[in-house]
From TrEMBL:
Protein name (Swiss-Prot/TrEMBL): GDP-D-glucose phosphorylase 1
Residue ranges of every copy of the GDPGP1-like N-terminal domain listed in the record: 87-241
GO cellular component labels: cytoplasm
Listed GO biological process terms: glucose metabolic process
Lineage: superkingdom: Eukaryota
GO molecular function: GDP-D-glucose phosphorylase activity; guanyl-nucleotide exchange factor activity; hydrolase activity; nucleotide binding
Pfam families, per database record: GDPGP1_N
InterPro entries associated with the record: GDPGP, GDPGP1_N, HIT-like_sf
Amino acid sequence: MFSRRFAAFFRFNRHVAQKYGSFIAAGFSNRFSMKVVTLLPLVVLRSADCRQKEDQEVKRPVRRRTMSKVKYETSLEGKAQFYLNAMKVRWDQLHKVPGLFSYQLEKSPQSRKIPGYWGFYAELNSDRNLKRRRPQTIESLNPTFKHMMFNFNKVDAQEVILTIDDAHGSPEVQMIINKSPITKYHTLICPEVGKNHTQRITRDALQFCITFMRNIDDKDMRMGYNSPGALASVNHLHFHLLHMPQDLYIDQVPLDELAGGYVYRLSRRAPTEGICIVFNENDSDEQVAEKVDQLYMLAMWMCKNNMPHNLFLTQDRRPGKSGNVKVFVFARSEYCVNKDLAEFNVGFCELAGYIPLPDAEKMENLTELQVLFRIRTITGNAPKAVYEQITGMVEGQEHYLWDQPLTI
């Protein structure tokens, strides 16, 4: 048995045979040499076997990075998962503190998948309707910051889950509990709270959110943004981070390419209209920066043209697309001055297919046709102008389109 393996070993590696042939031919002069020669073929055969197995493995694509290991470990890219884990632990602790949240979420809330082709998901949350802070009226898409109104400088220190101020290259961000949560781990992402940004997207905030979503290992965490006039309830810059494990229609919605190989519109067969910008797992830093720039410019264009909008960020759940992040942008022609707490509102959750409702009867009776009618009513023709604008940006016509008056 030994001789067969020994022969196979020398056939596999001629270099080893040449190197050690004279040594073996000379004979085993002592115990040490005998041990070495006896064990050597087995060691190299083991190495050869491991090498063959490695060659057979399917290699996963590796995200290209230009930063050093030390810089990566101190950046948001390297620390995002740590922040997410810390947030979850602290959120669970705070949710048990009496009186800190406006209400306690039920562990198994009543829910229903609305019958129909798209399968909108509805969930009962009557406490949010009754016990939440009264939403603010935000007068325009270019609002002024009002110090006397509620803002995140005024939250209790215990409501701040954690402050991210040690991520190289990222702005300071506070993760603050949503006192009236929609889902478990519902947290507010609040960039540079002390600078009093109004509820208009900044490029740094957008970069932070996209980088965070690209570097966490949890496809059930989603992120969203409501602009003024699109269900924003506090005029102080914030995004929402929520736990949504359900498979929503938005996860598998068909997409039609618009421009650049990464900008899509929801298919004409889809229940809603909007665009989707895909951040691929292997995008370089320069590619990510370019896409963030285009998203930011689009948001500013929508603000300039008084077009309320919602964003929904999610990791790609489509087969074979793991590692990508999709950013959906929904524009609307109807400006919502404030939230009607008794009716079916439309924010980023609803546009993505997740519909929290205040009473069981409404949840049981809501139809897909009613959902689609409400969404299309507030959306109007605004998405068509957005399709033209983002296409022009990607194809290098942004200055021409920016200066054109918007007609809806």
